[in-house]
Amino acid sequence: MQYRFLGNTGTKVSVIALGGWLTHGGHTGNEVAKQTMKAAYEAGVNFFDSAEGYAGGRAEKLLGEAIKEFGWDRDDLVISTKLYWGEHEDGSKDVGLSRKHVLAGMRKSLQRLQMEFVDIVYAHRPDKHTPMEEVVRAFNHLIHKGQAIYWGTSEWSSEEIMDAWRIADKLNLIGPVVEQPEYNMISRTRVEIEYAPLYRKFNLGLTVFSPLRRGILTGKYNKGIPSGSRADKEGSWFKEEVEKGGDMLERVSRLEPLAKELGEGITTGQLALAWTLKHPNVSSAIIGATSVEQVRENLKAVELVEKIDKGLMDRIDEVLGNRPEGVPFRFD
Amino acid sequence: MQYRFLGNTGTKVSVIALGGWLTHGGHTGNEVAKQTMKAAYEAGVNFFDSAEGYAGGRAEKLLGEAIKEFGWDRDDLVISTKLYWGEHEDGSKDVGLSRKHVLAGMRKSLQRLQMEFVDIVYAHRPDKHTPMEEVVRAFNHLIHKGQAIYWGTSEWSSEEIMDAWRIADKLNLIGPVVEQPEYNMISRTRVEIEYAPLYRKFNLGLTVFSPLRRGILTGKYNKGIPSGSRADKEGSWFKEEVEKGGDMLERVSRLEPLAKELGEGITTGQLALAWTLKHPNVSSAIIGATSVEQVRENLKAVELVEKIDKGLMDRIDEVLGNRPEGVPFRFD
Amino acid sequence: MQYRFLGNTGTKVSVIALGGWLTHGGHTGNEVAKQTMKAAYEAGVNFFDSAEGYAGGRAEKLLGEAIKEFGWDRDDLVISTKLYWGEHEDGSKDVGLSRKHVLAGMRKSLQRLQMEFVDIVYAHRPDKHTPMEEVVRAFNHLIHKGQAIYWGTSEWSSEEIMDAWRIADKLNLIGPVVEQPEYNMISRTRVEIEYAPLYRKFNLGLTVFSPLRRGILTGKYNKGIPSGSRADKEGSWFKEEVEKGGDMLERVSRLEPLAKELGEGITTGQLALAWTLKHPNVSSAIIGATSVEQVRENLKAVELVEKIDKGLMDRIDEVLGNRPEGVPFRFD
Amino acid sequence: MQYRFLGNTGTKVSVIALGGWLTHGGHTGNEVAKQTMKAAYEAGVNFFDSAEGYAGGRAEKLLGEAIKEFGWDRDDLVISTKLYWGEHEDGSKDVGLSRKHVLAGMRKSLQRLQMEFVDIVYAHRPDKHTPMEEVVRAFNHLIHKGQAIYWGTSEWSSEEIMDAWRIADKLNLIGPVVEQPEYNMISRTRVEIEYAPLYRKFNLGLTVFSPLRRGILTGKYNKGIPSGSRADKEGSWFKEEVEKGGDMLERVSRLEPLAKELGEGITTGQLALAWTLKHPNVSSAIIGATSVEQVRENLKAVELVEKIDKGLMDRIDEVLGNRPEGVPFRFD
């Protein structure tokens, strides 16, 4: 395993993190989910990601139980959660980043996780209805209480992140050190262009989700949607994307020979995962896994990172045909 | 004439300003240019806009001479200039927003204008090579020296304006109160969507340029480029735009009956100009004029603003077919 | 016993402190270690120093147990620990000054010490991988939580201490009030020259370690390394230093008559220890002791401090031949 | 000519600057001195350096006269001076960085230079007798008055520069953006090691003096001191250095073949000058010149910079044998 600093902090995270979206408390059985965690941990993964909104809190619950069960040292782990889509006990929603919800959400998350603190708490989305000062103060409050070590954002625009720093700087508070965006071979502009000024100004770290674009980059949909699969539902997000992305699927299939160059048995998915780690501000790529086998397959990507040189990056760009344009400036 | 506050300041400007781009010191004769100024002034225009980069400084010179000649009270006027594209005495360029250039540029502009101060000094473009702190400090320096009353930006991204405010807030300095973007029926997204958070946060004012999209919105190119006109040059910006905008020209021609509804003789150009003033954050629309007649025609737009109601705005949007999408939020 | 203010604070510490390095939880038996503590305490020592990294946490454990056992009033004592070299329960290392480690390290140290707070928490080394702002904020967090009364540094360069103050001043936080460097007749430059500006600027206090240079200054190695002693191991730090320091050992032996002048039975070691206390910014010299006898011998140094006058200091400097050059300035 | 940003500012300076030390108002005749300035200017040099202490003010006088005489546009030029060693009209000295002297020194320098402002004013040395806050406030005062655009330091330690930034940050004032140290193949540690943290923290720029170590690196003393030359005086600084540097002269002579590799007629001096420009934080190397020919010879170094590749740099290091050791850290 390799480790990187979490953006502009002194804390190191494994370059692959295990996330609980969809898989924890969701369609993957609890026992299998725990086994994927164990496999990841034993391979050196120290970073586990969850959210109050994943499976209505069941993802956090599973994560907490597993850590207790395995008896892992809490301080060995980097645990993150995200606040935005909360739920009251009666099932009613409690959504947003009001100070009231941030404090309540954190309290409930920690109960589910059976922990005193998380290492990173993310604002799961921007909240256009709560003033930025309230948001920045609320997340700083969690840090001051010792319930979180760092705070970050997820899917915020660069302007929103800049605004958070404006408020933090003005009030001498702590700004968001990490953003959790989607990043993969298909979705590139935000990470490669939009956030560029933030790297220069704040050394912003990224923990990216969907590095495999929900499986599309593994090539498994290259020949169309397998009938009966998760994607094979009328109106499903997958189906729409796969159908729209006709050209992209064709391009993905052309990555296969490039993957093979890196070694026998290397898959497009491993190449795609390693590719996200070539970006210097990506601290960690968060994978989901429905089996131990899948964890192991994914972790092989770690060793590929060094092997992917400038020449290969250029050839990948040629295949993808979506390198975002942007001028490198002195202060961006 | 009507007057509006210049963004979040206590200073009022006429909703129509007279600008010197292309016309002052440029292709319009000096005497005619002065007469357009006089006509505007007599109709209540108090806001005259220039830039160090207009006609290599000749625009400012003409503006300064005219004011002296007419004997207008300086304190009745709102005079603005912009710094970025400077020129040394030997013709070499001195470009950017370094403290050195901002100070030198202001000094030279004031000499040309024969003034002690301008009311607004704009950073004519963002400068990716000068640290934002240097820029914010330099424009504040002009204000502290009394050489400018306010400072603003021109064609900055919302993120850059946010960054300027971050620095200003952090250092207890004055932030940019006004932005000068292009805004007209054809170019809408920046003003209507991108800047929206800035209106809420800073009550940012706008002094918009090209409200008539360099004449295209007057309808004069609806039937093609008049041979021998300014646009009728191979490779000219105009020609290219007019030729590309085939569809847009056709749509513009369909605005003509809507203009007529507002009164006999009301032209598409007057409608288009009034339309920019419907945006609540536009403090002033800056027009250029090559004749006194043109000034008078344009000023008639002022009275139309009130007459353009929600229904008409919707019908205009239908014709234009380019209403930017974007959700209006509580804090945006 | 004599007491001095801990640098620029209102807290007084005994000029001799008892430290746990090597001796607590290490090669000295626990019972003997406790007796040395008792002897020191009864002689007026109120300051006991430890670190999370001493003997893998056993030094802190012993210190905590002893205090419980003796039933001393916690508020009579000044207890310090240091964070940097932490260890997880499974033996893996957790090193550095990331906020994550500082918080976890403090929690675990306090558990071992069976205390609610320490009086001083030191950053045991500078951490080039964690931003200074994170470090300064993390130590302030410990103070805000009540887990520490003051924070300090150990073996930081003057520039690093200056940088910590820069951040603390900028953010209105508490800067490091004390540094724990090595200081003795052999190692002088840092304390006498490098830190000089810090005394003037921050009235920085020093709690110095190795005042006897690990025994070398007691003269016990003057005639070479006793066979079978701790120093008598191939490649040991001691052996190397003793062998290299041929000339220094000879000089140390010439201090013996000077010690004798201060009184019958006064040893070179007592002279050397008292000599460190002549520096006005040394708040306390930290000794280690492997026997009660050793504690008592060392404590006799306290009374010598007053007796060592300018003339003797000069003669000591002549013998040592290593007075660092440097001009005493008004603001240094 | 090539230009670089002056440290963390938006102002560009030519990579070779012409300095007035020893040559202006000194042993070079005034007419020759002016001709060297003209030759430099015509070759694209825009940066001229002086000091109140050079030749008792005569260097500044000459610089000012020459600029007037040549009719150069002031805003085309970057003019710097340094304050520390001032002189009253009666010849008595007025030394240091007291607010009183900084203000008086600046006023007198500007009179001698016949200018309204300089671009950079340096604190010519640290002043241990004036509190840093007084120094930082005084130089900011010059900037606020418009008498200087930027301020910097000369021969300050990294700790002193850090302290200046501490005060500037605390008081929201402007810190020193540039340092003027000696830097050449013989004197390397300060620039390559000591200042490293300042590059990371403040993007500190350097305008280095003595890039040729007062001629030693041109090789002209390789065979000893020419009898009757400036260096051939008993007790002269040169004589001492040349005599001491026996080994270094021999090493310098071994650079000659490396210079030849870059092109026919390329001298050791040109190589040595270009070598200083390989350091990324060097904005400009300041040369002195006693003839137009010398200026032209030196300026040829500019084109060599690109040609000196990593391999050649390594071979130079081998010859010099004085590469300073130092660990590259994440935050240094």
UniProtKB/TrEMBL annotation, chains A, B, C, D:
Keyword presence, Oxidoreductase: yes
Every NADP-dependent oxidoreductase domain range: 16-319
InterPro entries hit by this protein: K_chnl_volt-dep_bsu_KCNAB-rel, NAD(P)_OxRdtase_dom_sf, NADP_OxRdtase_dom
GO MF annotations in UniProt: oxidoreductase activity
Short name of any one Pfam family annotated for the protein: Aldo_ket_red
Record's keyword terms, sorted: NADP, Oxidoreductase
Source organism superkingdom: Eukaryota
Record-stated family: Belongs to the shaker potassium channel beta subunit family.
The protein's name in its UniProt record: NADP-dependent oxidoreductase domain-containing protein
